[in-house]
């Protein structure tokens, strides 16, 4: 399973949840800024992805995976992502253009960075993890 | 006036299903009296009752830690009215209850006897801490009173007594001011959210937030008036909401907020109108939905 193989199904889900035309859903499109997603839509998106791909995506999974070996305090201070945190986040969200990572970014604002490809990677990672533990 | 709409729970299988009842009586505040018909309860209140029934199940399943508040409903179908003197059976099925991720997926139906009144499809909601919205001990006590297993009552033929024909109509189910009105195109209205609104006593004691169902009902009612004015009709009851789709509540609306709602015509034929609703607070979207109205010719008693 890879990004390319999950994208067709994810495209359908994103288009349905965000009520946009499938042709608008491209890998590089930002979910919030370009496809109009609202915070509540992420609940729906994650639910639909879990159901479609029969995976579990625990809440806060992206932050957790991005953080890697960093402790909470190393990753964020008072809700704002540290410089170290920003480095690992950029690495993890490699599909997001570098200019989108603004200094002073808050943990709560991480979803503003997400693209359609981020969702694809999330599904692939969750699926691989599930396969490894099975 | 309160904002709790499940009168009794007959069966509650935690994480699976719930069966309850809502009696429609003159003591209900959310009644509407359409000409030539018995008073009936507002549709959104039955939708709210299904949501509350589901929430009771989740509260029990999570050992009084989590409850359903707001969320998304993909589709609500409105089939008929439920009238004063009737007992509405409420059924709720929980498709998914993920306590770890704090999310539920559910559906529900309201019926009178075998007649479907309203159906909620594809509800998806976040689960939030019970303690954030009130005292958990009070919630435990409320459920203890509500949950009394037993047999559902059998529907019966009835006549209303003279006194019950004049229910008080709730003046709150309305917007407070119209900002813009263009027949057949759009309307913009504002609702001032006052701490003194009586529904805040139940919704919720620990954190007052405007019930989504209430905001939706106000908007549906405004939609009726807008359609009637656009068609230069005197009787707004020539149209009936048949379906509401893609209801999403993005943010809580709290006392002190001003909700500004824009209604736009999406499509109009002589017999159908679809309207788009967008409610905002300080330019931030708080709730959206699409409603489908159908024209009813010589509409009589819905039996």
Account of the 3D structure:
The complex is a heterodimer of chains A (134) and B (303). By secondary structure, chain A is mostly helical. Chain A is 51% helix and 3% strand. Chain A is built from 6 helices and 2 strands; from the N terminus they run ααααββαα. A two-stranded antiparallel ribbon of chain A has the order 1-2. By secondary structure, chain B is an alpha+beta fold. Helices cover 17% and strands 40% of the residues of chain B. Chain B has 4 helices and 15 strands. In chain B, the strands form 2 sheets. In chain B, strands 1, 2, 5, 6, 7, 8, 9, 10, 11, 12, 13, 14 and 15 form a 13-stranded antiparallel beta sheet that branches. In chain B, a hairpin with a 3-residue loop joins strand 10 and strand 11. In chain B, helix 1 packs antiparallel against helix 4. The longest helix of chain B has 19 residues. The two termini of chain B are 29 Å apart. At the A-B interface, helix 2 of A face strand 12 of B.
Present the secondary structure layout.
The complex is a heterodimer of chains A (134) and B (303).
Chain A: H1 3-17, H2 39-53, H3 61-67, H4 72-75, E1 76-77, E2 80-81, H5 83-92, H6 116-133
Antiparallel strand pairs in A: 1-2
Helix pairs in contact in A: 1-2, 1-6, 3-5
Chain B: E1 8-13, E2 17-23, E3 31-32, E4 40-41, H1 43-61, E5 66-68, E6 72-78, E7 87-98, E8 103-112, E9 115-129, H2 130-133, H3 136-146, E10 177-182, E11 186-192, H4 212-230, E12 239-249, E13 258-268, E14 272-281, E15 284-295
Antiparallel strand pairs in B: 1-2, 2-7, 3-4, 5-9, 6-9, 6-12, 7-8, 8-9, 10-11, 11-13, 12-15, 13-14, 14-15
Helix pairs in contact in B: 1-4
């Amino acid at each position: 399973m890879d990004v390319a193989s999950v994208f067709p199904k994810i495209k359908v889900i994103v288009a349905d949840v965000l009520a946009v035309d499938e042709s608008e859903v491209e890998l590089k499109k930002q979910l919030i800024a370009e496809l109009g997603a609202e915070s509540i839509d992420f609940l729906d998106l994650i639910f639909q992805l879990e159901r479609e791909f029969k995976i579990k995506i625990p809440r806060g999974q992206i932050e957790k995976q991005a953080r890697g070996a960093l402790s909470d305090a190393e990753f964020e201070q008072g809700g704002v992502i540290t410089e170290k945190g920003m480095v690992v986040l950029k690495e993890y969200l490699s599909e997001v253009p570098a200019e989108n990572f603004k200094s002073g970014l808050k943990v709560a604002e991480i979803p503003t960075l997400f693209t359609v490809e981020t969702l694809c990677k999330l599904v692939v990672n969750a699926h691989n993890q599930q396969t490894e533990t099975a | 006036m309160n904002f709790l709409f499940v009168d009794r729970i007959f069966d509650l299988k935690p994480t699976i299903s719930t069966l309850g009842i809502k009696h429609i009586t003159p003591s209900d505040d959310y009644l509407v009296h359409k000409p030539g018909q018995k008073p009936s309860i507002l549709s959104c209140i039955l939708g709210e009752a299904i949501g509350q029934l589901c929430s009771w199940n989740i509260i029990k399943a999570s050992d009084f830690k989590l409850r359903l508040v707001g969320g998304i409903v993909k589709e609500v179908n409105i089939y008929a009215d439920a009238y004063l003197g009737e007992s509405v059976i409420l059924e709720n099925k929980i498709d998914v209850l993920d306590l770890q991720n704090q999310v539920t997926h559910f559906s529900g139906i309201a019926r009178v006897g075998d007649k479907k009144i309203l159906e909620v499809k594809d509800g998806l909601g976040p689960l939030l801490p019970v303690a954030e919205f009130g005292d958990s001990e009070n919630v435990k006590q409320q459920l203890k009173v509500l949950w009394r297993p037993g047999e559902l009552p059998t529907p019966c033929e009835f006549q209303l007594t003279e006194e019950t024909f004049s229910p008080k109509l709730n003046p709150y189910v309305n917007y407070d001011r119209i900002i813009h009105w263009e027949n057949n195109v759009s309307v913009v209205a504002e609702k001032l959210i006052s701490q003194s609104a009586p529904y805040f006593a139940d919704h919720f004691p620990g954190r007052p937030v405007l019930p989504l169902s209430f905001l939706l009902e106000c908007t549906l009612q405004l939609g009726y008036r807008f359609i009637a004015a656009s068609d230069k009709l005197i009787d707004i009851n020539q149209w009936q909401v048949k379906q509401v789709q893609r209801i999403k509540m993005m943010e809580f609306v709290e006392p002190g907020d001003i909700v500004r709602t824009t209604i736009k015509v999406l499509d109009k034929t002589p017999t159908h109108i679809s309207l788009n609703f967008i409610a905002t607070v300080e330019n931030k979207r708080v709730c959206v939905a699409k409603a489908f109205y159908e024209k009813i010719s010589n509409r009589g008693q819905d039996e």
